[in-house]
Structure prediction request, 721 residues.
Amino acid sequence: MVIFVVRTTMRSLLARCIGQRENRVLGQSVALLIIFGLLAPKALVFAQTCSSAGCSGTTTHIGGAASNPNISRFSVNGIINPVAYGAFPSSTTARLTATAGSSTGAVNAIGDFVAGQLVFVVNAGAVCALATPLAPSVTPYATAGYRVDGTGLASYSIEAVGPNGCVTPAGPTTTITNGNIILSSAKGHQLSWRAVTGAKFYKVYGCSGNACSQKFISLARGTKYSDFGQAVGNGSSPSTSSLNDHLFASITAINGSKVTLSANAGASGAFMMYHDSGTPIVNALAAAQSAGSGQGGGRVEISPNPSPYWLALPIDIPSQTALQSSACSTAQYGNLGGTYESSDRAGTTLAWAGDPEMVALWHWNTLHAQTKCFTLDMSNQPGMTALRLDTNATGGSGVDLSDIEDIGITSAHIGIEIGNNNCQGDLFPDCDASRILIRRISVIGRMAADTTARGMLWDAASAGPVSEIDDFGCLQQVNGCIDFEDSGMGGPLLNHPSMGFQNPIFGANSFFIKMASGGGLEVDRAQEEPQVSPAYGFWVPANSLQNQNVILLRQGAWNNTISLDSPTTVVSQSNNVSEATNIQRANIGGAVVVSIGDRFPGGWTAFNGGLILTQLGGRDSQTPTTTYNRIDSLSVTGGGGLAVNNGGVTALGLQATGTAGITNSGVTFAGLPTCNLTRVGQQLEMTDCNTNCVTYGATNFTGGASGKIFVICDGANWVEH
Prediction:
């Protein structure tokens, strides 16, 4: 028998070599006894020293190759450690050349793969045994107050996905000719299909319009889906062939470049092989849920490491359970046209290596599930959703009280998705997703070809009014940062969202924040960086269900246009728009804007009649000592428009065009009342300016002609504005 003694600090040993939290173990030093039985020719002998800088030393087989020790089932104070179940952080990947029916294959590089480790080999497992889905049923629909167009063309098909990753070919296509021409939150197409035995997920493909080409739309867990133009897919086409299961196995032996696994390959060819950390994390979560029952839930903690933990299948976070890193640290992201560092916090990296168009982490039918302190790297595959919260339940039994904090997301098609499943009316996603807390999220797109990428997609009509989103930021190549396709009942509070480092940005309909439907929304302290150039800062698109909404925009710094293209009530208070060329627009009848203390050099314009645009005096949010609005242009275009200028607002031009426009009739130069201290801040339109009519700040203008200017009393003189 051989005994090795290694002296080191207990804190560093556990944190660096085993992966537990440093502050959970008492004591300054310990003698580690490593006891082995009688030494065989291949017996393991190791001696490592661990410190705050990491672990060093030798690990050898007597007469054999190098290896790493395996410490199993190690937890501290009931906090479950996935390393104890076989999770292994590594940047090593290998290409395995496999033969169907054989467990041995050759790899291009051994790296840190050793016998006893868990691995997965992408799509090298069993042939997909799932039946190909049948053609879906497609029914056009329209919500109250709208009607189905009746002449629109659309087509859809479905692929089934098995629990171990296999994917069927797309099933037969259903094509309709009586659908909706334009899909929106007001009208769309309802899909349903027959369940495939053994399937866990379904990929939905479809398109609308003449001679359209089907593209991936969304991943569903049930057999219903409503397409109302969310455009959440990444544009890949349906497949005509199947994909095998992933091969999940352990390494039983390594001989040179030959690797022997515990299971046979189901296909021949070259396949990517990764360390499998997904299976250990799932097992650790199950243990934590069981251990935490009746105690408010259990916790799984994964130690930070420079290398990622690889995932091949979606991971469900159970109820009353937390999945988190054992420490949060500032996340650094590489050269994106200039190296910069995220101000939000992230810890352990979970990286995706499975098939495309899947979901990495899923809060599904959960109560009080938590995910905290991770970097989610989706760069290995297109069309990925990093984290999704959804349910197939209603009435307070869906996904409730979820807590998502300190997450950095890179290269996902959708960073975080809430909802998108059907439960009740089947006209749009309406399952219960409420009381959700999302804090400190950074989303970096990086997928240059992905022109419909979203930082966050919120699509749950039954979402409760008490959800809160704090410090959500989009940093690079995200076509739409925050997309409320349906904000739910009452709508969430969106506090301090931000968008920056956007180069390039794609599409005519790119945006910082979009509100397509829902029960309302409050946006506080939005921050749109000057270098950001989407088409819209805040956007309510056409054909949106907004009639009963009240949207509050407060104390935001915007760089691009605020545009209301559907009937909407917006209260805009103390907001700034930096670009004078960006006119804030109320574009349709029923759009009501109350502007209080805003600073919009480009002005507000009401287009297309039937609009009410109200400007009220207030305090300028950029220069708080200034007690008037800076609205340089206030105008109405189209019949029936109304612009009201009131209460100490500075405006260069108040005008109306069209047969029924309403405007201030103004006064002549001779009709200007005496400017004195009692009239400070009063402004009037002068209708007969003759000279000095285009000089901002002039006091020596004259009347007697037809020029129109705005003047304001400064306490002594009327000053041209």
Q: What stands out?
A: Residues 448 and 523 are 29 Å apart (CA to CA). The first strand starts at residue 2 and ends at 8.
